[in-house]
Design goal:
The chain is of the alpha/beta class and 243 residues long. It contains eleven helices and twelve strands. It has one domain: Aldolase class I (TIM Barrel, Alpha-Beta Barrel), CATH 3.20.20. The chain has an eight-stranded parallel β-barrel with strand order 1-4-5-6-7-10-11-12, surrounded by eight helices. A hairpin with a 2-residue loop joins strand 7 and strand 8.
Length: 243
């Protein structure tokens, strides 16, 4: 199981938003690239980067910071505002290893199909859910589409990796929504990365154990807990590798 330390970008800085709320921001670093180097030194092969400005506006706004993170040598999984093919092409050419399509995937599955046909495994879909329903546009709008239905649809069109975030747990440090994650893992054959609520090494251990039951549990994203010293990235990576 892969541990993905999270770097959320807003205004070029590394921040976290409580449950995705723009008015609930905590700034952790003015130098996201330095944070990426720190994660790489701890053993991380990947970082999960979200352009929060892009998620809210609809187009990426932190390209310079993303490029600086990629230049550290860590693999970048990037989401936020990737809503047209030219933008996806540009960020992949710019050093991003995998893009995460969120809002556009929920609204236009054919868009994702075209991306998968062109870029294959470099395309993942982010499914952000509140009470089992898909949320879009920086989590501002909740749709009538169920997370499981969208997951099945994305799998059917060839998406190899899904990132599942339970919004209610994100940034709350209360633990992931394990039942919902288990349901998703059982429903689709593709790889799933868990996100939201991971607050302790116990949560990491539980997820690592789940990965032995569900081999399609590819990894876990953790953000706030890392920045607040609740989870040590190197220790989390060792724990994940032990299962």
């Amino acid at each position: 199981m892969i541990v993905f330390p999270a770097i959320d970008l807003r205004g070029g800085r590394c921040v976290r938003l409580l449950q995705g709320r723009a008015d609930a921001e905590t700034v952790y670093s003015d130098d996201p690239a330095a944070m990426a180097r720190k994660f790489r030194e701890a053993g991380a092969e990947w970082v999960h980067v979200v352009d929060l400005d892009g998620a809210f506006s609809g187009s990426p706004e932190n390209a310079r910071a993303v490029a600086a993170i990629a230049a550290t040598g860590v693999k970048v999984q990037l989401g936020g505002g990737l809503r047209d093919e030219a933008t996806v092409e540009r960020v992949l050419d710019g050093g991003v290893s995998r893009v995460v399509i969120g809002t556009r995937a929920a609204e236009d599955p054919d868009f994702v199909r075209r991306l998968v046909d062109r870029h294959g495994d470099q395309v993942a879909v982010g499914i952000d859910a509140r009470d089992g329903r898909v949320a879009v546009r920086g989590w501002v709008e909740v749709t009538e589409t169920s997370a499981l239905d969208l997951a099945r649809k994305m799998t059917d069109i060839g998406v190899a990796t899904l990132i599942y975030t339970d919004i209610a747990t994100d940034g709350m440090l209360t633990g992931p929504n394990f039942p919902a994650l288990r349901e998703l893992l059982a429903a689709v054959p593709c790889r799933v990365i868990a996100s939201g609520g991971v607050a302790t090494m116990g949560h990491v251990e539980t997820l690592a154990a789940m990965a032995t039951e569900f081999p399609n549990l590819l990894g876990v994203i953790t953000g706030k807990a890392v920045y607040e010293g609740r989870i040590d990235v190197a220790e989390a990576i060792r724990t994940a590798a032990a299962h």
